[in-house]
Specification:
4-stranded parallel beta sheet, 15 strands, alpha/beta, TIM Barrel, disordered C terminus, 2 domains, 5-stranded parallel beta sheet, 14 helices
């Protein structure tokens, strides 16, 4: 048992310690404000989280003020190096910073509650973030800190058993555009035909005519390939479906009332975990989101508890509060829609902390670090560069026994000339890492 002494157990401290130990590594602990109990305890391991050292048989971490505050205000942050890792909230103690406060600042997304600029889509811009400014966005810094902390604890308390967490890979897919030409309204295909005819896009025109007349396969219909890969490598993915009733702006999927779309959704809901991909329109209208969830539930005849925002359009705390109200228990949007990396600096699921209400919620956040659309559209990578980037994320997450969550879209994994290299990149990634990533996602 890990025993932690502090003079006051705040909600923020309880949350941070629970996340760092129990949630990430399954390590049991107890927090106490009883100094006599702490001094007389025969616990395997002891951490003193107070302003003064108590004795030698402990690891002393001197607190920063953040976890004992209950408001939201700009914090003075100066980064420095600790064991070749960035750290901040410098204090005295056996480690030179308050790891609990720093963890809380990053994982609660504290900085997203402060005044900030938006990107072109009205989202929190990654350029605001400490991780981007201080060049650790590419690292699951909290997992790395935790790994170093556990090493120190084991050195000081050799009898203390450190649990072995396991690396997991969770492939996820956003089905924004289920079909390229099939099952779309006749007017849409006529409009597309005319546009391609008058702009001289002969290849696309021939492809459209071939698909609509049944002579060739719709290029976006590659679900059989994905199924084969999942079966081959014993993978258990999550599919997120866009079910916007109106085609508008960034919502381009076919109608969820279309029988072929419903058939596709039902088939996947029977075989895999599925979730709602709330439309762009729903970000401005709670009633639309609630209607989309109800529609999805009627299609699959079961409760929907998973979600990921279309275009990663989210605002804290409003988006998460609304999702909780709608019955969502697992959310997969923590990551950026403008760059790959670790938005919350962690590669493990964690409970969302509502900073304005200053309380932990029951909403589980599943952070992703890689989306192929970021590599292509935002970072302007070639398929080869994207493959190297994905491999780097795999390797760093594996090194901390975290959970690697990737996002791919069915319309990226096609046999079309412009996408075949990306299709092959994903297949090669699975083939290369099959022995270390295969396994159930739970």
């Amino acid at each position: 048992m890990l025993l932690i002494y502090t003079t006051y157990v705040s909600k923020r401290l309880q949350y941070s310690v629970d996340t760092l130990f129990k949630q990430i590594s399954g390590l049991p602990f107890e927090l106490t404000t009883d100094i006599n109990l702490y001094q007389q305890s025969d616990a395997d391991c002891r951490i003193n989280y107070s302003d003064a050292k108590i004795n030698e048989a402990e690891l002393w971490i001197q607190p920063h003020s953040l976890l004992f505050e209950n408001d939201i205000q700009p914090q003075i942050i100066e980064c420095f190096e600790w064991n070749n890792l960035k750290a901040f909230f410098k204090t005295a103690g056996d480690i030179p910073f308050d790891i609990f406060a720093a963890t809380f600042y990053l994982i609660s997304r504290y900085e997203e509650y402060l005044q900030h600029t938006k990107d072109e889509y009205g989202r929190y811009s990654h350029t605001n973030s400490l991780a981007f400014k201080k060049d650790f966005l590419h690292l699951p810094l909290i997992n790395l800190w935790q790994k170093e902390l556990l090493k120190l604890l084991q050195q000081k308390f050799p009898q203390f058993p450190i649990p072995n967490s396991q690396f997991r890979f969770l492939p996820t897919y956003d089905i924004d555009i289920a079909y390229s030409y099939l099952h779309k309204p006749l007017l849409n295909n006529i409009g597309g035909f005319c546009k391609e005819l008058f702009t001289g896009k002969w290849k696309q025109l021939a492809e459209r005519v071939g698909v609509v007349t049944g002579f060739i396969k719709d290029p976006f219909v590659n679900y059989d390939l994905l199924d084969a890969l999942h079966e081959m490598y014993n993978l258990h993915p999550v599919y997120f479906f866009l079910v916007a009733e109106k085609r508008k702006l960034y919502d381009k999927n076919i109608s969820p009332h279309n029988k072929y779309m419903q058939r596709l959704i039902r088939w996947y809901a029977k075989k895999y975990l599925t979730g709602i991909h709330p439309s762009w329109q729903s970000g401005d209208d709670a009633a639309i989101l609630k209607n989309e969830i109800l529609l999805f539930e009627r299609i699959i005849n079961k409760k929907i508890t998973r979600s990921r925002q279309h275009y990663i359009r989210m605002h804290l705390p409003a988006t998460y509060r609304l999702l909780i109200e709608c019955g969502i228990t697992d959310e997969y949007s923590i990551g950026y829609g403008s760059i790959n990396g670790f938005r919350a600096s962690v590669a493990s699921p964690f409970y969302w902390y509502d900073l304005e209400k200053d309380e932990q919620t029951n909403l589980i956040i599943h952070p992703f670090c890689y989306m192929e659309a970021n590599s292509f559209f935002e970072q302007h990578y070639s398929a080869q560069q994207a493959a190297e980037e994905l491999q780097q994320y795999h390797d760093i997450v594996k090194s901390v026994n975290g959970e690697l969550i990737t996002i791919f879209h069915n319309h990226f994994i096609t046999e079309q000339k412009e996408w075949i290299e990306w299709r092959n990149m994903y297949i090669d990634f699975l083939r290369k890492n099959v022995n270390v990533i295969a396994g159930k996602t739970g």
